């Protein structure tokens, strides 16, 4: 099978993420997710517009569980303390957000391995400076798999 690069795939759909300043109020982040159902993640940017964090639906589910039910079993002790003190967007970032990003030159296999390893269906695509170029979604990977499968059949 030929090597497929992220660059060939990540623009098959419109983006399903927004970029917001890392110091945005927590209430703004929660409101965006609540009112924009198609939103899969928020990418946080620093003052130089470089990726500084990722808030995924999983992060928000853990936060809301903590808010509503105390998150007793579902959260690690660190997450419980972290979420209880959350006031800014950066307080809800995925704990290992640095490993959730890919570059256009990365292989699709690498990207899919990251998705599987972190149980996430969306990844930020970055340039060499850490600036967000877009997002790679599972739906785009699925479309590429269908395309490759059709090409392989006689």
Describe the structure.
The longest helix has 15 residues, at 138-152. This protein has helices at residues 26-35, 57-69, 77-84, 108-118, 138-152, and strands spanning 17-21, 41-45, 51-56, 102-103, 122-126, 132-137. It has five helices and six strands; from the N terminus they run E-H-E-E-H-H-E-H-E-E-H. The protein has one domain (6-152): Roll (CBS-domain). A hairpin with a 5-residue loop joins strand 5 (122-126) and strand 6 (132-137). The strands form two sheets. A three-stranded mixed beta sheet has the order 1-2-3. Strands 4-5-6 form a three-stranded mixed beta sheet.
Outline the secondary-structure elements.
Layout: E1 17-21, H1 26-35, E2 41-45, E3 51-56, H2 57-69, H3 77-84, E4 102-103, H4 108-118, E5 122-126, E6 132-137, H5 138-152
Parallel strand pairs: 1-2, 4-5
Antiparallel strand pairs: 2-3, 5-6
Helix pairs in contact: 2-3
For the sheet with most strands, the description reads:
3 strands, mixed
Q: Mean of residue pLDDT?
A: 87
**What's the shape?**
globular
Helix content: 25-40%
CATH superfamily, by name, is CBS-domain
Strand content: 15-25%
**What structural category characterises the helix and strand content?**
alpha/beta
Major sheet: order of its strands? 1-2-3
CATH topology annotation: CBS-domain
List the uncertain runs. Answer: none
SSE series: EHEEHHEHEEH
Number of domains: 1
Distance from first to last alpha carbon = 15 Å
Overall CATH architecture:
Roll
Radius of gyration: 17 Å
CATH class call: Alpha Beta
What is the strand tally?
Answer: 6
What is the number of helical segments per DSSP (H or I, 4+ residues)?
Answer: 5
């Amino acid at each position: 099978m030929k090597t497929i690069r992220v660059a060939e795939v990540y623009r098959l759909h419109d983006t399903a993420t927004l970029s917001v300043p890392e110091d945005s109020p927590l209430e703004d982040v929660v409101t965006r997710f609540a009112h924009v159902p198609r939103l899969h993640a928020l990418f946080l940017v620093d003052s130089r517009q470089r990726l500084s964090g990722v808030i995924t639906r999983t992060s928000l589910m853990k936060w809301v569980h903590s808010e509503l039910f105390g998150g007793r079993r579902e959260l690690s002790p660190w997450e419980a303390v972290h979420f209880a003190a959350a006031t800014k967007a950066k307080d809800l970032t995925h704990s290992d957000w640095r490993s959730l990003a890919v570059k256009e030159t990365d292989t699709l296999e690498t990207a899919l391995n990251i998705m599987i390893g972190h149980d996430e269906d969306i990844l930020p695509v970055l340039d060499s400076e850490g600036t967000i170029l877009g997002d790679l979604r599972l739906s785009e990977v699925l479309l590429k798999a269908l395309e490759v499968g059709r090409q392989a059949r006689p």
